[in-house]
């Protein structure tokens, strides 16, 4: 079964390619080889204004620069988000992007007095979160309990309906040799073929 896949590259540096770009390319190659339809968004190439109030988030207008990105999220059946771990979390530009596109009325509907739980508007979609980091992935999982990835999976993607959400944590990237990187790229191609 073929799927519609959106690859969201969350590295904020557009000046040169990074490991995350190679991982995204490998995922896209695997997905295309399996016949999946693939679209890509590079957050670094977008104008992403910061939200500065709850009023703007709830009732403001989505910036024109993000209309196509929001439509691509609605279009996809599987979302792949790649980003480097910065100060224990996703880069600020990616967070700003998610705050803009996952607004009430699009990603969810607020609960009511009769039913206090939010309606998840993006149900029926799965996701994979791929995070690169300098520290060993095991340290991030055990010592830091992968807190920021858990928050993204549960409090953002899960809250708006994405399930299942799988993760791939790649640690020690600065010291990784060519063989290790090649293994990661092979893994990404495999995930792309499976749309998982």
Q: What does it look like?
A:
The protein is of the alpha/beta class. It has one domain: 3-Layer(aba) Sandwich (Rossmann fold), CATH 3.40.50.360. The protein is 39% helix and 18% strand. The strands form two sheets. It has a five-stranded parallel sheet, with helices on both faces. Strand 1, helix 1 and strand 2 form a beta-alpha-beta unit. The longest helix has 17 residues. The radius of gyration is 17 Å and the shape is globular. The relative contact order is 0.20. The model has no long low-confidence stretch (mean pLDDT 94).
SSE blueprint and pairings:
Elements: E1 4-9, H1 19-33, E2 37-42, H2 54-59, H3 67-75, E3 78-84, H4 92-101, E4 108-109, E5 119-120, E6 126-132, H5 137-142, H6 147-160, E7 165-170, H7 178-194
Parallel strand pairs: 1-2, 1-3, 3-6, 6-7
Antiparallel strand pairs: 4-5
Helix pairs in contact: 1-7
